[in-house]
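Take a record.
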Amino acid sequence: MLINENFRIYLFLRIFSIIDKKMKIGFTLKPKDGNILDFEKQIENLEKIGAETVEIPLYELDVICGKKIIQDELKLLNKITRNSNLNFSIHGSMSVNLLDKDYLEDHLEVLKREIEVCSDLNTNILVTHFGHTSVETSKNKKKYGDLINIQKQKYFEMAEIAKVHGVKLCIENIFPYTNLHFTALPSEVSDNIREIDHPNARTTIDFSHAYINCNLRNKDLIPEIETMIPFTEHLHVHDSFGKYKTMYTYIFAEDITYGQGDIHLPLGWGNIPFNEIFSACAFKKDIFFNFELSRRYEKYYSQNVKKAKKLISLVI
């Protein structure tokens, strides 16, 4: 009888683990003027459309001020997340740049506070950006190599701190923000993570960032993305045309009109080959599939959840 009971428990746990191992679809929250209270209604709406995850944009909040944690803001955020059944990830400050030698200690202090915030919220994914530098620096192989080595060392040290707090750093591939900037292709990001060799230094794939950077550097998109897959715990999904912004526009909405830049469109509005990507790439079954869409596209959130499920069904 005991054997049968133990077997039933084992079978239940086994089935549950298989069912639970699936991509979790969600969205990045968008507060107005950094107001955490905006999240309550947004989370409620996301739950209604079947979202499973939420990314908290820590970079838009006042939780960290002067490289210190504001406890009142953190308590407010903690209360909101505790009242939800969704899974949470956190996107740290976009300005954190471990290739920035002049302000490296400032970036490291902010990253430490972000790890602590994740820990306090019982959230184990912290998205942070791979570093960027000047085009001029990138052309000097020794100088650039030295900066990359410093970044790898610091990522390892931060991953050690993150491990203590039960947090994974999910390092995101980016693209040059201006024609004076340089940053790594996805394949270089994955090479760095492989060399760091730490279980708490993982990656986030941003498909639009990859598309823009690959087009700039004349590289094939899918092979570049494939290099990151073994390390990836988190996806940033939004559409674009992979076109680097070169033309001046009066407002951001006109970048959408002309189809240039990292414009964060709903699926199908741009031309990123998502069907081909998800058919070719063996993504892990239990990672976060996170839409980074602005509130202007909220009316299409439900439609994008359906499209996400179709893409996930293509994964080999």
